[in-house]
Amino acid sequence: MNFKSLFYGLAIMLFVFNCSSSSDDDMTAQPDPDPDPTPTEKVTYDADIKSIISSNCTSCHGSTPSNSAPMSLTTYAQVSSYIDAILDRINRTGAGKMPVNGTLSATDKNLIQQWKDGGLLEN
Length: 123
Known about the structure:
Blueprint: H1 2-18, H2 45-56, H3 76-81, H4 83-91, H5 106-117
Helix pairs in contact: 2-5, 4-5
């Protein structure tokens, strides 16, 4: 009977010491989660907008406007000064929508809007 009592006593002692929570693992500082997991990168004319304008607008709004285009959209200064008119035209669905040969993708429209909302950064 003493052998069984000793065995059970040791088993209980092992169980108690193995289940203790005296670990330092929970005491180490954990990094804070990213407060903005999907940060919005800055949209700039040089990196994002210039290629959209060049691909879709400058065939008519080139350095010498053609096809009755009223203005040139070949430089940052020109595009930024006409941003409200550009946004109006690319978001239209009927008469006067631009570009005349199609529609900009939602991604391109959103980039142009983000560029305006972000302060019309050049580069």
